[in-house]
Amino acid sequence: MIDSHLHDRLGRRVTLRPVDDDNWRAVADVAPRDDQRAWVPALAARYLLLTDRTDVWTSLAVYADETVVGHVMWGVDDDGSRWIGGMLVDAAEQDHGVGRAAVATLAQWLAGEGGGNPVRLSYHPDNAVAARLYTSLGFAPTGATEDDEIVVELVTLA
Ligand SMILES: CC(C)(COP(=O)(O)OP(=O)(O)OC[C@H]1O[C@@H](n2cnc3c(N)ncnc32)[C@H](O)[C@@H]1OP(=O)(O)O)[C@@H](O)C(=O)NCCC(=O)NCCS
Description:
Elements (H helix, E strand, L loop, with lengths): L1 E6 L5 E6 L5 H5 L16 H9 L3 E8 L2 E10 L5 E8 L8 H16 L5 E5 L4 H9 L2 E8 L2 E6 L4
Parallel strand pairs: 5-6
Antiparallel strand pairs: 1-2, 2-3, 3-4, 4-5, 6-8, 7-8
């Protein structure tokens, strides 16, 4: 379990846990709002298949107390940089502070275990909520883009 002792605005403890035999169905069912499907798949199941089919990514279940409320994944690029991807909070659980706590928790963990390698992620420029969230957590643009997305890097953990 990855636990930075952060809570959402409902007072629930937000933790990141391995996807296992007990929780994978709940993680697979995590779904965005319909209007967010331009940026993310219709279900987190797609991310689980991706992490299962490649060696690059590792999926994690996002928990609020003992309830699965989201998905996030991490990976290591050829240059050693750590990447965060697949950040998805279930539509019914959004805007309660889960996303902020989950990204902060994973970024802090990756910065700690990464031996000084940068922590990066990317988002679509039209995704205003994601842009504001990542900027406020201390990510800044590297100047690079990837698949039409803006690449940002953790500068200071806010
Ligand atoms: C982006 C996402 C992960 C954020 O998760 P979340 O739990 O809703 O976010 P939080 O509640 O922690 O809020 C983060 C910030 O976004 C703002 N926010 C969240 N939902 C919002 C909404 N519907 N409209 C406006 N602002 C919103 C919050 O006000 C908050 O800002 P603050 O901390 O300065 O107050 C979530 O919206 C999501 O899953 N979106 C669809 C998938 C996606 O876009 N993933 C990112 C791909 S890079």
